Amino acid sequence: MAKSVHTVAVIGAGKIGELVLSGLLRSGWPADRLLATARRPERAEELASRYGIRVVDNHTAVETAEVLAVAVKPQDAATLLEEIGPKVPTDKLVISLCAGLPTGFFARRLPEGTPVVRVMTNTPALVDEAMTAISAGVHATGEHLALAEEMFTPLGVTIRVPESQQDAVTALSGSGPAYFYLLVEAMVDAGILLGLPRQVAHELIVQTAIGSAVMLRDSGEHPVKLREAVTSPAGTTISAIRELERHSVRAALLAALEAARDRARELAAQSD
Q1: What is the pLDDT of residues 164-178, one digit of tens each?
Q2: Among 3, 39, 124, 262, which one has the highest count of C-beta atoms within 10 angstroms of its own C-beta?
Q3: Could you write out the DSSP letters of every residue in 61-113?
Q4: 133: which strand partners?
Q5: pLDDT band at residue 270 using 50, 70 and 90 as cut-offs
Q6: Distance between CA atoms of 190 and 184, rounded to whole angstroms?
Q7: pLDDT tens-digit map of 228-254
Q8: How many CB atoms lie within 10 A of CB 266?
């Protein structure tokens, strides 16, 4: 599919919506094929000025665009669909970026047969290193999934998953950047405790994180093998790992991701 034939409207261009807009523009998507909607006039002006796109009302977006990327907060989705749902033609593709909301939530509020694709991306889209998971609703075809991939692949990596796995995706990669930032923050503080200047500690940890991630991606090795390669008998690393295990870091991560998964389910239940 040629990019030029599809007009995309990002409905509710907050943080995630803006990520999509900026990423599409960086990938070469024509600005005249991008629309956005925003609740506040000052936000609309900001988006139009920053990206050179048209910011319109919701009804104009529905009439004009072939792809409607819904990026409002989950708790606002029902109100939005009350407004525009009945007016969405069934030949439009609706892409949901609303965390926790299943495609069935949209299907009940859109005309019968409207294709919906559920997408969970994350904030590294800002640097074209996103992890994006894509799932088809009941009326979405392989062609619809391919169009969603065309939109999101330039932002990083895409993967197709069954929709039943999307709450787990939300917990693991959707919220995942925050876990790494928290870990880096703690390790920088530890570096300061050990006598390093903050900037030196920051640079050491950030580059170590980048290098470790690239090794995980490119080596094909299991993380256990890579960890063991750093862990000498009776050395410094095993002493640190003993403390991490003593403080139940692994168990804390398991509990944290379960909590994030459960919250995604709660958001869906509350929105319905």
Answers
A1: 999 999 999 999 999
A2: 124
A3: HHHH-SEEEE-S-GGGHHHHHHHHGGG--TTSEEEE--TT--HHHHHTTS-TT
A4: 120, 159
A5: confident
A6: 10
A7: 999 999 999 999 999 999 999 999 999
A8: 12
The edge-to-edge listing of strands for the beta sheet with 54-55 is 54-55, 34-37, 8-11, 67-70, 93-96, 116-120, 130-136, 156-160
CB 53 within 8 A of CB 35: yes
Asked if 64 and 35 touch (Cβ cutoff 8 Å), the reply is yes
The pTM assigned to this predicted structure is: 0.90
**Run of H or E residues at 32:** none
Residue with tokens 């019968």: 112
Residue whose structure tokens are 């047969």: 113
Give the mean pLDDT of 131-145.
96
Q: Six-digit token pair at 72?
A: 């409002």
Output the CA–CA distances (angstroms, integers) from residue 84 to 4, 22, 65, in the order listed: 25, 25, 13
How is residue 148 written in tokens?
């969603």
Yes or no: say if 55 and 9 are a contact pair by the CB < 8 Å rule. Answer: no
Could you give the C-alpha distances from 205 to 114, 187, 201, 208, in angstroms and in order? Answer: 47, 7, 6, 5
Q: Is 177 exposed, middle or buried (0-12, 13-18, 19+ CB in 10 A)?
A: middle
Cα atoms in the 13 Å half-sphere on the side-chain side of 270: 12
